[in-house]
Design goal:
globular, about 5% strand, mainly alpha, about 160 residues, single chain, two-stranded antiparallel ribbon
Length: about 160
Amino acid sequence: MLYNTSDAHKKVAIAIAQMWKKALGVKVTLENQEWKTFLDTRREGRFDVSRAGWIGDYNEASTMLSLLMTENGNNYARWSNTEYDNLLNKAMTVADESQRAELYQLAEQLIAEEMPVAPVYQYVTGRLVKSYVGGYPMNNPEDNVLAKDLYIMAH
Protein backbone atom coordinates (compact mmCIF):
# COMPACT_ATOMS: atom_id res chain seq x y z
CA MET A 1 0.00 0.00 0.00
CA LEU A 2 1.58 3.19 -1.23
CA TYR A 3 1.14 6.42 0.70
CA ASN A 4 2.90 9.75 0.91
CA THR A 5 4.77 10.98 3.97
CA SER A 6 2.43 12.26 6.64
CA ASP A 7 1.69 11.03 10.16
CA ALA A 8 -2.04 11.07 9.39
CA HIS A 9 -1.61 9.05 6.17
CA LYS A 10 0.62 6.58 8.00
CA LYS A 11 -2.01 6.06 10.72
CA VAL A 12 -4.72 5.42 8.12
CA ALA A 13 -2.47 3.00 6.20
CA ILE A 14 -1.63 1.06 9.38
CA ALA A 15 -5.31 0.88 10.36
CA ILE A 16 -6.32 -0.37 6.90
CA ALA A 17 -3.53 -2.97 6.90
CA GLN A 18 -4.62 -4.24 10.32
CA MET A 19 -8.30 -4.43 9.29
CA TRP A 20 -7.48 -6.25 6.05
CA LYS A 21 -5.29 -8.74 7.93
CA LYS A 22 -8.01 -9.42 10.50
CA ALA A 23 -10.97 -9.54 8.09
CA LEU A 24 -9.34 -10.93 4.95
CA GLY A 25 -6.13 -12.60 6.09
CA VAL A 26 -4.19 -10.29 3.76
CA LYS A 27 -0.64 -9.28 4.63
CA VAL A 28 -0.10 -5.69 3.54
CA THR A 29 3.30 -4.13 2.99
CA LEU A 30 3.27 -0.39 3.58
CA GLU A 31 5.37 1.83 1.35
CA ASN A 32 5.94 5.43 2.38
CA GLN A 33 7.35 7.83 -0.20
CA GLU A 34 8.11 11.53 -0.23
CA TRP A 35 5.61 13.59 -2.22
CA LYS A 36 7.44 13.91 -5.54
CA THR A 37 8.48 10.24 -5.63
CA PHE A 38 4.97 9.22 -4.56
CA LEU A 39 3.45 11.19 -7.45
CA ASP A 40 5.83 9.58 -9.95
CA THR A 41 5.18 6.07 -8.63
CA ARG A 42 1.42 6.59 -8.68
CA ARG A 43 1.42 8.18 -12.14
CA GLU A 44 3.44 5.22 -13.48
CA GLY A 45 1.01 2.76 -11.89
CA ARG A 46 3.68 1.01 -9.82
CA PHE A 47 1.42 0.09 -6.89
CA ASP A 48 -1.28 -2.37 -5.90
CA VAL A 49 -3.16 0.03 -3.64
CA SER A 50 -2.43 3.72 -3.28
CA ARG A 51 -3.59 6.54 -1.10
CA ALA A 52 -5.26 9.33 -3.01
CA GLY A 53 -7.02 12.51 -2.12
CA TRP A 54 -8.98 15.20 -3.85
CA ILE A 55 -10.70 18.38 -2.79
CA GLY A 56 -13.51 19.72 -4.95
CA ASP A 57 -12.69 23.06 -6.49
CA TYR A 58 -16.18 23.93 -7.69
CA ASN A 59 -19.66 23.22 -6.35
CA GLU A 60 -20.77 20.49 -8.77
CA ALA A 61 -20.57 16.69 -8.58
CA SER A 62 -18.32 16.43 -11.63
CA THR A 63 -15.45 17.92 -9.60
CA MET A 64 -15.17 14.48 -7.97
CA LEU A 65 -16.88 12.13 -10.42
CA SER A 66 -14.86 13.17 -13.48
CA LEU A 67 -11.71 11.81 -11.77
CA LEU A 68 -12.77 8.27 -12.66
CA MET A 69 -13.44 8.89 -16.33
CA THR A 70 -11.27 6.68 -18.54
CA GLU A 71 -9.26 9.51 -20.11
CA ASN A 72 -8.89 11.66 -16.98
CA GLY A 73 -5.20 12.20 -16.18
CA ASN A 74 -5.96 11.85 -12.45
CA ASN A 75 -7.59 8.42 -12.84
CA TYR A 76 -4.73 6.64 -11.09
CA ALA A 77 -6.96 3.63 -10.46
CA ARG A 78 -6.98 3.23 -14.25
CA TRP A 79 -10.62 2.22 -14.01
CA SER A 80 -12.45 2.25 -17.30
CA ASN A 81 -16.19 1.88 -17.77
CA THR A 82 -17.80 3.06 -21.01
CA GLU A 83 -21.25 3.35 -19.42
CA TYR A 84 -19.80 5.55 -16.66
CA ASP A 85 -17.99 7.76 -19.19
CA ASN A 86 -21.19 8.15 -21.22
CA LEU A 87 -23.25 9.05 -18.14
CA LEU A 88 -20.70 11.68 -17.08
CA ASN A 89 -20.38 13.15 -20.56
CA LYS A 90 -24.16 13.45 -20.82
CA ALA A 91 -24.54 14.84 -17.30
CA MET A 92 -22.00 17.57 -17.96
CA THR A 93 -24.00 18.81 -20.95
CA VAL A 94 -27.52 18.64 -19.50
CA ALA A 95 -28.96 21.96 -18.37
CA ASP A 96 -31.77 20.52 -16.22
CA GLU A 97 -30.45 20.07 -12.66
CA SER A 98 -32.75 17.18 -11.73
CA GLN A 99 -31.85 15.26 -14.90
CA ARG A 100 -28.16 15.91 -14.26
CA ALA A 101 -28.53 14.70 -10.66
CA GLU A 102 -30.22 11.52 -11.89
CA LEU A 103 -27.35 10.83 -14.32
CA TYR A 104 -24.78 11.44 -11.57
CA GLN A 105 -26.68 9.05 -9.28
CA LEU A 106 -26.53 6.32 -11.96
CA ALA A 107 -22.79 6.94 -12.34
CA GLU A 108 -22.32 6.71 -8.57
CA GLN A 109 -24.16 3.37 -8.58
CA LEU A 110 -21.56 2.03 -11.04
CA ILE A 111 -18.78 3.16 -8.70
CA ALA A 112 -20.53 1.43 -5.79
CA GLU A 113 -20.92 -1.79 -7.78
CA GLU A 114 -17.36 -1.98 -9.15
CA MET A 115 -15.50 -0.17 -6.32
CA PRO A 116 -12.50 1.17 -8.27
CA VAL A 117 -11.81 3.36 -5.24
CA ALA A 118 -12.51 2.93 -1.55
CA PRO A 119 -13.44 6.22 0.10
CA VAL A 120 -12.14 6.20 3.65
CA TYR A 121 -12.96 9.66 4.94
CA GLN A 122 -13.58 13.19 3.79
CA TYR A 123 -12.06 16.39 5.01
CA VAL A 124 -14.32 18.66 7.00
CA THR A 125 -13.82 22.11 8.42
CA GLY A 126 -15.75 23.17 11.47
CA ARG A 127 -16.80 26.79 11.79
CA LEU A 128 -18.49 28.57 14.66
CA VAL A 129 -20.51 31.39 13.16
CA LYS A 130 -22.72 33.52 15.37
CA SER A 131 -26.37 33.54 14.33
CA TYR A 132 -26.25 37.31 13.78
CA VAL A 133 -23.40 37.12 11.24
CA GLY A 134 -24.79 37.32 7.71
CA GLY A 135 -23.17 36.68 4.36
CA TYR A 136 -21.20 33.65 5.48
CA PRO A 137 -20.90 31.25 2.49
CA MET A 138 -22.37 27.97 3.77
CA ASN A 139 -22.12 26.04 0.49
CA ASN A 140 -18.70 27.07 -0.72
CA PRO A 141 -16.57 23.98 -1.46
CA GLU A 142 -13.40 26.06 -1.71
CA ASP A 143 -14.04 27.52 1.75
CA ASN A 144 -13.44 31.04 0.48
CA VAL A 145 -14.66 33.60 3.01
CA LEU A 146 -14.38 37.23 2.00
CA ALA A 147 -14.72 39.80 4.77
CA LYS A 148 -16.39 42.21 2.33
CA ASP A 149 -19.36 39.80 2.11
CA LEU A 150 -19.90 39.54 5.88
CA TYR A 151 -22.21 41.76 7.91
CA ILE A 152 -23.78 41.94 11.34
CA MET A 153 -27.56 41.63 11.53
CA ALA A 154 -29.64 43.40 14.13
CA HIS A 155 -30.63 41.09 16.94
